Amino acid sequence: MLTKIELDAWKATTPDTENVEVVNRLIDQFGLSQMKKEELDRYDHHFFRRKIIIAHRDFGIVTERIKTKKPFIQMTGVACSGPMHMGHKMSIDLFLFLKKMGARSYLAAADIDAYVSRSDKTVPSLEKAKEYAVDNITDCIALGVDPKDIYAQSRKEQRYYEFAFELTKKFTFNTLFSIYGEDYDPGKNSANMLQYADILHQQLREFGGPMPSITGIGIEQDPHARAVRDIAARLPYNFVMPSFIYFAFQQGLQQGKKMSSSDPATAIFLSDTPEEAAKKIRNAFSGGRDTLAEHKKLGGIPEIDRAYQILKYHHPDDKYVNELYDRFKSGEITSGELKDEAIKFIGEFLKKHNEKAKRARPIAEKIVHGR
Amino acid sequence: MLTKIELDAWKATTPDTENVEVVNRLIDQFGLSQMKKEELDRYDHHFFRRKIIIAHRDFGIVTERIKTKKPFIQMTGVACSGPMHMGHKMSIDLFLFLKKMGARSYLAAADIDAYVSRSDKTVPSLEKAKEYAVDNITDCIALGVDPKDIYAQSRKEQRYYEFAFELTKKFTFNTLFSIYGEDYDPGKNSANMLQYADILHQQLREFGGPMPSITGIGIEQDPHARAVRDIAARLPYNFVMPSFIYFAFQQGLQQGKKMSSSDPATAIFLSDTPEEAAKKIRNAFSGGRDTLAEHKKLGGIPEIDRAYQILKYHHPDDKYVNELYDRFKSGEITSGELKDEAIKFIGEFLKKHNEKAKRARPIAEKIVHGR
Predict the structure, then answer these.
(1) What's the whole-number average pLDDT of chain A?
(2) Which residues of chain B are within 8 Å of residue A185 when distances are taken between CB atoms?
(3) Range of the domain at B278
(4) Which of A90, A154, A272, B110 has minimal Cβ neighbours within 10 Å of its Cβ?
(5) ipTM of the shown complex
(6) For residues A141 and A84, is the Cβ–Cβ distance under 8 A?
(7) Do B281 and B243 fall within a single domain?
């Protein structure tokens, strides 16, 4: 019998999604669906072509809307509990792609959520959560998100808050404790109320009415997806069951650590300078061998090489990325040379991003503080 | 050892507060304070003179503010889960009196609370809760409440909702389950978040800052008072601990039943016609004896007579009420004659009230629906 893979939406444990068997077990265990080849082919983005999107729930409904050029909703969020890193950038890249595909787009800055669900050490006050909200929204705008598509949880319409309270009537604590485990607390419960409202409220009559919706999440967040689908079915609004697509888990730069906003060495932040990023990549875990001779003989292991992963997850050019894969795997190039490629790519990206962020900040301030 | 008196804030069990010993035990058990004679004397209202207000928590702080003519806050709520009856009227009478004493006054129509915390049978939808909100606010305005002092939970400032979520960070489920018992559920938790926010949010900087506040509640609602004081102390806002005064329990018109919006025979509703009210009083439980001869000989028992209670709780004239007490207790007047007095008083009150309510309704509609 296969061991059950324990995933905890709050602790964000890290399954090895580079491993196909692990992915298949997760899909099986959670009742997710594999992406079909025709779906992977339909979407012209490297997330689909490179199987960085590994599974879904009801994505077919959204595909059908795109095919028939009918409107659909997409929703994503930024956590407001620290600076954004390259892992977070993936959600925004997907968001920008789905917007191009015609989605009515909503990006929530989860400022209240961040304060009530995180430790005092991470987010000591609401003010701090709002500082992070400004930072995160700044990055989103710099990445290309339309400011009109962004809202902060603390600055919504009354109906949104009413709805967040309303939906709790359909839950029991037994259900919530069984989904979220023993560490569940009133603050996390509040965060959930807001997350469920973030995902569902656009389907209320006041916001446009029932419509298919899609959200991209990490596979470890599936408990939230199950909970929000459970509640969607029991509310009296004829909601279309929200769809989800699941990202593979982009590992931290250091072996055995996930990307973390509170541990700068584990991830490249969107606010890093090119020099800071270069240093982090130099120190990152590599798939090279212990000696050059061994590397030339055996070849590298791109699947575990963090410089390669950066390029695989973020560089848009398939030909370039595939060639690097082959040349590293054959031992033709060293991990140092692979890191040079990642450093060059990330450096150019960050230089432009930092400039755009400067212009974006006043707009982000206005979204969070209304002035 | 005295038996512990079990009170449940949700079930609203009914202690016999006409019995001084029961009142003393409750005060002792909950750690409440007796009203001091000087306090009872200071307030020129029959609630104080007749000891209808039986206990308090920190009322002295508010008395001090009144003495020194400094501002203080008062807050009360209407439940929006059915029509208002004469029991509810007492909160509003106290509210009007405290407004005259200089209180900054806030009256919350608990429309979201009503939907999320009540059974589907009582409040089947948010729309129904808002209908009740219009009804309840109509009655409050007709009783004399300034419409500017009234708000509906569903139509507040963003900061109010943010605060309702925020305060949950300071609670544990252990605390909440121990205060509210096993029937506690996510809907009731939402109702509590809003109630705590209703009582505390006026002390936020955005709403005026820390200041003594007073709320009159039924003694069976003390678990809420304890919970909100607990949270007030742990929030980072230097809140003044909110004060409470406790009403005696006005019993239902039928023996063994509490006044209930869903059981018309148990209470006189503010929307009743004088004729409907007269019929209810005729059928009410009386403190008269089985035969006239016995009544003349032994005298009536005003303490259990519902017609007498109506006059005691609502008629402003001490001399009139005391005389009726004496004449009924001595057997000089029968329960039928006592009922005639109550019918006359209530009939005149309702006739005027119904006229005022007609004029108040459009204002109430505007408060709830914004149009």
Answers:
(1) 93
(2) 171-173
(3) 264-369
(4) A90
(5) 0.93
(6) no
(7) no
pLDDT at B291: 94
d(CA B340, CA B281): 9
Domain match, A173 and A288 both? no
CA end-to-end span of chain B: 58
Contact indicator for B104, B98 with CB cutoff of 8 Å = no
Mutate which: B121, B125, B158, vs A, most A CBs within 10 A: B158
**B125 contact residues in A (CB cutoff 8 A):** 236
Residues A173 and A230 reside in one and the same domain: yes
Under the banding of pLDDT at 50, 70 and 90, the label for residue A1 is very low
Query: Is the minimum CB–CB distance between A184 and chain B shorter than 8 Å?
Result: yes
| Whole-angstrom distance, CA of residue A111 vs CA of residue A155 | 10
A112–chain B Cβ distance below 8 A for any pair? yes
Note whether B42 and B328 are within 8 A (CB): no
CA gap B69, B94 in Å, rounded: 19
Q: Which of A218, A186, A204, A243 lies closest to A66 in space, CA to CA?
A: A243
- Domain end (from B220, B247, B274): B247
Q: Which of B121, B122, B165 to mutate to test the interface with A (most CBs of A within 10 A)?
A: B165
DSSP string computed for B316-349: --HHHHHHHHHHHHTTSS-HHHHHHHHHHHHHHH
SS3 B299: coil
Q: In the predicted model, is pLDDT for residue A125 greater than 90?
A: yes
Number of domains in chain B: 2
Q: Is the pLDDT of residue A18 over 90?
A: no
Given A116, A154, A166, which is nearest B169 (Cβ)?
A116
* Distances, alpha carbon B37 to alpha carbons A95, B21, B34, B55, B103, in Å: 68, 18, 9, 12, 22
CA separation for the pair A311, A116 (Å, rounded): 35
A149 and A112 assigned to the same domain:
yes
Q: Is A169 on the interface with B (CB under 8 A)?
A: yes
Which ranges of B240-305 would DSSP assign to H, the alpha helix?
274-282, 292-298
What percent of chain A is predicted at pLDDT more than 90? 82
Identify the CATH number of the domain in which residue A356 sits.
1.10.240.10
Nearest to A171 among B172, B186, B236 (CB): B186
Q: Which residues of A touch B194 (CB under 8 A)?
A: 165
Mean pLDDT for back-to-back runs of 10 residues, chain B (371 residues): 48 67 85 88 93 94 96 97 96 98 98 96 96 98 98 98 97 92 93 97 98 94 92 96 93 90 92 98 96 96 96 97 98 97 98 98 97 87
Contacts of B171 in chain A (CB under 8 A): 185-187
Residue with tokens 């890249």: A93
User: In terms of Cα–Cα distance, which of A274, A340, A272 is closest to A305?
Assistant: A340
Find the mean pLDDT for residues A328-333: 97
Question: Phi and psi at residue A25, in whole multiples of 5°?
Answer: -65, -40
Q: Do B239 and B278 fall within a single domain? A: no
